[in-house]
Amino acid sequence: MKVELENAVGRVFHATSVSEGMGMARCVVLYGERPAIAERKILPEEIEGEVERFSKALIQTSEQLQKVAERVKEVLGGDSASIFESHQLVMEDQMFLDEVIRMIRDECMPADLAAQRVSLKYVHFFENVPDEYFRQRVADIRDVTTRLVDNLTGWSQHDGYTQLTEPSILVSSDLTPSQTVQINRQMIAGIVTEQGGITSHVGILARSLKIPAVAGMHRATEIFKTGQQLLVDGYRGIVILSPTEEEIRSYDVQVEQERELAHSLEEDAAKPVATLDGRNITLAANLGQPAEAAHAVEAGANGVGLLRTEFLFFNRNTLPNEDEQYEDYLKVATSMGERPVVIRTLDLGADKKTSILEFPFEENPFLGYRAIRFCLQNSAVFKTQLRALLRASAVAGNIKIMYPMISGVEEYDAAQKVLHECMEELDREGKAYNPHLEVGVMIEIPSAVICAGELARKASFFSIGTNDLIQYTMAVDRMNPNVNYLYKPTHPAIIRLISSTVQGARHGNGHGGIPVCICGEMAGDAELTPLLIGLGIDELSISVPNMMKVRRVIQRVYFNDCHKLACQALQMGDPAQIMKLSSDFVREVAPELFVER
Ligand code: PEP
Ligand code: MG
Fold first, then answer.
1. Suppose 388 and one of 36, 257, 325, 400 were both cysteines; which one would form an S-S bond, judging by CB atoms 3.0 to 4.6 Å apart?
2. Angle between helix 138-153 and 47-76 (nearest 10)
3. Domains in the chain, start-ordered, CATH in brackets?
């Protein structure tokens, strides 16, 4: 059932589709422009009322912080919520409270303005103290005082996403990684953001939680108002404001079709993941949090191809220690049984920053202090993680380590040197680890592709991070909606780089070289599966909800046909034609995957 959208001009907004599915609900707009607080005086008879309003806002803020802390503890557990407990301390700071009340009483200032003035004074003070610890607390102080002032002005969208009582569409400029971990899946019917694209963390998270989402919608937080009815079409990258009855009917039909398709795809899980002519492909899961491991097993994943360990560093005010990390890694590894689990060392920096570690201002954060570069310059943080991984490997023999953002052999060698130092330390301490632990390299910088042969002689496996490889090859910031149109996974340069990586991997030790996985989002696009298999990829690691369609395609194709298709694609120059070549092939072998929209 197709609905004409042309006549809906003014209500239909185009964006980038980042997570499939459709969701309809009232929207909650987050982080729209905060209205400025007007300079004004109150009358003497209003003073006590304002003092009381301030006291009530303090209680309200404390209760909100309590709820956020509980929610974070539920999702991330342990020490993660302690940051919100320290936020509470700001609310109890007597000097802060006295100063606000003094301004209300002595200067006839309304409570919101007084609280804002004192908050700014505090932030300014802590920004300028020489002590590093206090400087790093500025973000916390700003966070909690902003919440307090919002409660006083009635600007109530702060943390709306954690306190929803009915399913809603979230509209936001962007969602930070620490905000996204607090999302209650049951209450989010869809996400619309102004920033980001398919490989931004919002997109990755939305797909793993199966939330329909679009990103890169220009001025979304100005266009939509909290309470408006929105339909988010994550298939076509469309948002419809106040959908008509006809559009709602079409939405219902499509949701039902998708449900039926998902049901039929579930049946494939019991069959081996191999092509019709017997080439086995490993279908692994990308996990952002340990809790997702159970879903991966349920969905029939052959392992974990990428555990992003950044989750350990968000929403907390102390670094995770070795034992905590050990527990988390072990939890994921044991819940996967014998299946291999690739744990990526920290990839913080660029869009993934945390207030517990210092990241200086950078003109080009994606070209800067990130991932392995950060780890090699912060050996204490790196060693803690490596020691935890090594110790976990003694119990869970299925653990493998992977380094992100490796630009060439020297960086790999430097990381390995630290790993060997950790092994020697553990030897001295009499602590066990798996001495045969496999170590792999993410191929996500073009220089690593060019040096793939040399890297393959050292590493145990490759995993191509296409999210970054595309960004660095095309010189297109993966978060920037203005240049999103250049972000093309089927650009001939990308296809050829994947092919070169596979050729490079052949130089590796072992029969036929070392295996190559793709763990970037491109691996989860079922329309590209024949192309990627044909290029010689051994493993696809994708978010759990995307697994079913990819598996169906693998089970319906002959490797020989895929190989021919890939050879043809390698001769082509037009990204759209390469996309069409692979997509048409999938349409032939698995037409049911294409629901008419
Ligand atoms: C990638 O770059 O493709 C990747 C998987 O890593 P991340 O998205 O975490 O940068
Ligand atoms: Mg990457």
1. 325
2. 130
3. 12-32+158-246 (3.50.30.10), 44-153 (1.10.274.10), 274-593 (3.20.20.60)
